[in-house]
């Protein structure tokens, strides 16, 4: 039998939480509220049957709103993330489920089809959170925890991976009374679903769901508000524990410096095409016949788009300003240039020192440079690689230190904003720009020698000299 209990979180008293939730309901059904308070202020949980018995008796006794009051109470506790449903009481439950969206409650009268075989959704994700094993199907609005002090929970997952009926859970020694509640709770949370004679779930036959990859769905669900109640936004979770990464990227060890041309902005402003012309002429160019990009052009291009305009300190750390916008002003990405065919520049892998506007040679041209250039060539379906590939190398912790949930998604958005700045500047300069959708993070890690958790490639942009397309 499904049970329910209250998990008030760290700093809150259960009784105080219950009082606050019941206060507005007392006027409608005072006796019901008194009994619910007594019943729910236990640590081990209350069976749904007991709660329903309270409301049934109260309604017989004239409190006609008793069941509405119970529903409102559960909804308000669920909305603040304090409600837990168990497949048994708290000490015995193999499965605990809770809603993560306001107004979402599992159905109390659990009906499960005994003849059907249920199977794990391919979208289900499993992870450890503290000492709990969490399983969820992103976007369902629910999350579940599986008991780990015995192996029963692990068996549960194995059985549902293969597909099992309610009765089949006996193989995992799941207690008889918990089998149907477990199935019903997992089904409501979208973690399992009935399979057909071919082992397919409804999601496997749905044209919309078939096209989602599990990792994309999890990323989407967790980087947006609405379907989960995890902390999201500027939470500064590590403020008191870890130093923030500085705005200025430490200068990497290098084999030499190449000063870049810094254009006079007044001159550019006087001679540039208009914004409308740049917007309308902008296109992705993959010219076969072209002249090589020059070092002077690369210098002007980087100055216009990616240089550090200023550096300043604030209460929450150091920041820079650059021509393109950046989520949170973090400017977590630096530009690395794989230069294959730039007139006046030795082929190799360079770091753009945005504060001093110069290139630092990190690697002479080698197999990894060739591999990175080859990946760009493949992505662009060209016969010769672009003159330069600009890679965005992100220092992830610049964003993670401040933001929860949205840290990675925001970096991709910032990269998109930089792409547009790159496109417009290249168009104004008559160069050949092309955004790239894919790059190899392992090749980049080899080229920089950086821990890929610390600094990794998140975007690439091809740049060539003027050409025929
Ligand atoms: C994020 C992003 C990724 C892209 N990836 C590639 C790519 O891998 N290969 C390619 O040839 N073009 C790529 N492009 C260019 C698009 O194909 C191009 O923008 C689109 O077809 C519209 O054409 P237009 O840019 O000429 O207006 C990409 C563009 C963006 C914004």
TrEMBL record:
Molecular function, one GO term: oxidoreductase activity
Pfam families in alphabetical order: Nitroreductase, ThcOx
Domain Nitroreductase: 305-451
Gene3D superfamilies: NADH Oxidase (3.40.109.10)
Ranges for domain Cyanobactin oxidase ThcOx second: 118-226
NCBIfam families associated with the record: antibiot_sagB
Listed name of the protein: SagB-type dehydrogenase domain protein
């Amino acid at each position: 039998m499904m049970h329910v209990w209250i998990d008030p979180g760290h700093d809150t008293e259960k009784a105080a939480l219950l009082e606050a939730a019941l206060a507005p309901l007392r006027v409608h059904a005072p006796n019901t509220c008194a009994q619910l308070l007594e019943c729910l202020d236990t640590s081990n949980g209350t069976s749904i049957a007991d709660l329903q018995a309270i409301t049934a008796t109260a309604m017989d006794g004239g409190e006609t709103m008793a069941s509405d009051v119970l529903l409102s109470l559960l909804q308000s506790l669920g909305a603040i993330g304090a409600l837990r449903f168990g497949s048994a009481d708290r000490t015995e439950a193999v499965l605990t489920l809770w809603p993560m969206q306001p107004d979402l409650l599992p159905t109390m009268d659990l009906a499960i089809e005994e003849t059907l075989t249920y199977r794990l959704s391919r979208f289900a994700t499993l992870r450890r959170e503290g000492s709990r094993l969490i399983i969820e199907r992103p976007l369902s609005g629910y999350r579940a925890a599986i008991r780990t002090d015995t192996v029963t929970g692990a068996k549960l997952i194995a059985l549902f991976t293969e597909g099992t009926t309610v009765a089949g859970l006996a193989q995992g020694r799941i207690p008889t009374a918990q089998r149907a509640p477990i199935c019903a709770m997992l089904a409501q949370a979208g973690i399992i679903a009935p399979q057909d004679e071919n082992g397919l779930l409804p999601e496997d036959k749905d044209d919309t769901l078939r096209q989602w990859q599990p990792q994309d769905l999890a990323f989407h669900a967790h980087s947006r508000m609405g379907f989960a109640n995890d902390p999201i936004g500027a939470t500064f979770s590590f403020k008191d524990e870890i130093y923030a990464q500085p705005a200025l990227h430490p200068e990497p060890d290098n084999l030499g410096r190449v000063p870049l041309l810094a254009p006079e902005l007044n001159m550019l402003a006087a001679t540039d095409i208009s914004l409308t012309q740049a917007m309308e002429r902008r296109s992705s160019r993959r010219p076969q016949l072209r002249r090589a990009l020059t070092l002077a052009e690369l210098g002007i291009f980087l100055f216009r788009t990616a240089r550090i305009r200023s550096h300043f300190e604030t209460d929450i750390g150091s920041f820079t300003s650059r021509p393109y916008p950046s989520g949170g002003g973090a400017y977590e990405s630096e530009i690395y240039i794989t230069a294959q065919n730039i007139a006046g520049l030795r082929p190799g892998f360079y770091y753009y020192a945005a504060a001093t506007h110069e290139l630092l040679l990190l690697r002479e041209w080698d197999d990894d440079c060739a591999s990175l250039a080859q990946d760009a060539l493949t992505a662009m379906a060209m016969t010769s690689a672009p003159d330069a590939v600009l890679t965005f190398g992100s220092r992830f912790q610049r964003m993670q230190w401040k933001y929860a949930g949205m840290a990675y998604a925001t970096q991709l958005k910032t990269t998109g904003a930089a792409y547009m700045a790159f496109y417009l500047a290249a168009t104004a300069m008559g160069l050949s720009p092309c955004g790239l959708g894919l790059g190899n993070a392992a090749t980049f890690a080899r080229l920089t020698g950086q821990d890929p958790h610390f600094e990794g490639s998140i975007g690439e942009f091809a740049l060539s000299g003027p050409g025929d397309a």
